[in-house]
Amino acid sequence: AGRESINTEIVTLTRHLNEEQTKHREATGDFTLLCHALQFSFKSIAYYIRRASLINLSGLAGSSNTTGDEQKKLDVIGNDVFLAAMRSSGRVRVLVSEEEEEVVVFDEYPHARYAVACDPIDGSSNLDAGVSVGTIFGIYRLPEGAKGTKEDLLLPATELVAAGFTMYGASTQLVLTMKDGPVNGFTMDNGLGEFILTHPNMQMPKKRGIYSCNEGNSKYWEEPVKEWCESLKSAEKPYSSRYIGSMVADAYRTLLYGGIFAYPADKKSPKGKLRILYECGPMAMVFENAGGQAVDSKMRRMMTVVPEHIHDRSGIFLGSYEEVQKVIDVHKKHG
Ligand code: AHG
Ligand code: MN
Ligand code: MN
Ligand code: MN
C-alpha cells in the first residue's frame, strides 16, 4: 500500500532544464549550461549566508557601491561568487551587477551569447538580523556579432529570455521563468544538494488584502499613492500590512499569497529606489508570467521601461492583477 505515497518522480532543476532544452530541437545547450552555473552560484551563496556569523562574514565590508549602498561583506562575497560562476560558464559575454560600477565584459569568451543582470544579495541590510535575503537575475540573449557592451543590457524586460530569483529563507527557494513561459518554483533539498520542482506553474491569486510597502516614506508620496494606501486601510475589510524590507522576500510572499508590493518613486527619491535592470525588470517578468502585473510610478507597464544607465532606478507596483489595477485606477482618477 505504501508505494503510491512515495513520489519517485522527482524533478530536479537539472532534469527540468534538460526537458526544456529537449523541447527546442535547435537548442545548443548554452542556456542550459548557463543555468547550471547560476544554480551553483545560488547553492554557494546560500552556503556562505547560512554560515556568515560563524566565519566572520557578517557586518560591513567597509566600502560602498555605485548606487550609494554600504556594502556588506556578503554583498561582496555574493558578487564574487556570482561573477566567478558566470565567467567560468563560458556562456556569458557581459554582465551588470549592483555591486559593479561598470558592466563586466568577459573578453575571454568573445562568442558567448548571453548577457546577465544580477543583484547578488538583495535585502542585505537585513542580513545581520537573520532575515530572508535573495539573489535576483535576468538573462538576455545577445544579437549576433554583439561585442558585449553596456548597450547590450540597456533593454526592457520584454527582451529577457529568462528571469527569476532565489530566496535564502527558512528554505532556499528558486523561482525561474522563461519568456512567455510558466513560473516554476524549486526548493533546495540539502540532502540531495538539488533544487526540486515543488511549485510548478505558479499562478497568483487575482486579488488579496495584503499590501507591502515602507509607509515610513508616506510623507514623501505623491497624492494618488497616499489615496490608494488610505483606501486599503479604510476598506470594509482593512488590508493586512506585511513588509520585510527584502524585495525578494516581499515578492515571494506576494507571488504565493497574492496582494501588492510597492516601492513608489516619491519626493525623496524621485526616480524611485529599486533598480530597473536587476530588481524591477526581472520581478516584473516573473509576476506577469504568474498572472499578475507590474507598473512604474507613471503607471507604465514595468516590462517596457528602458533604463538609460545600468543602475537606473524606478518606482514599482508589483502584485496580483486586480491589486495593481487599483493603483492604476486611482492614478487615472487624478488624471
Ligand atoms: P539591496 O539589498 O539589493 O540593495 O536591495 C534593497 C532593497 C530591496 O531589497 C528592498 O525592497 C528595499 O531595498 C527596502 O528599502 P527600504 O529599506 O527603504 O524600505
Ligand atoms: Mn544594496
Ligand atoms: Mn536589491
Ligand atoms: Mn543587493
From TrEMBL:
Recorded GO CC terms: cytosol
Catalyzed reactions: beta-D-fructose 1,6-bisphosphate + H2O = beta-D-fructose 6-phosphate + phosphate
Domain Fructose-1-6-bisphosphatase class I N-terminal: 12-200
Domain Fructose-1-6-bisphosphatase class 1 C-terminal as annotated: residue spans: 204-331
Gene3D superfamilies the record matches: 3.40.190.80, Fructose-1,6-Bisphosphatase, subunit A, domain 1
GO molecular function, one term: metal ion binding
EC number, UniProt record: 3.1.3.11
Cofactor: Mg(2+)
Alphabetic keyword roster: Carbohydrate metabolism, Hydrolase, Magnesium, Metal-binding
Pathway it works in: Carbohydrate biosynthesis
Entries under SUPFAM superfamilies matching the protein: Carbohydrate phosphatase (SSF56655)
InterPro entries: FBPase_C_dom, FBPase_class-1, FBPase_N, FBPtase, Fructose_bisphosphatase_AS
GO biological process: fructose 1,6-bisphosphate metabolic process; fructose 6-phosphate metabolic process; fructose metabolic process; gluconeogenesis; sucrose biosynthetic process
Assembly mode: Homotetramer.
Protein family per UniProt: Belongs to the FBPase class 1 family.
Protein's name in the database: Fructose-1,6-bisphosphatase
Organism of origin: Saxophila tyrrhenica
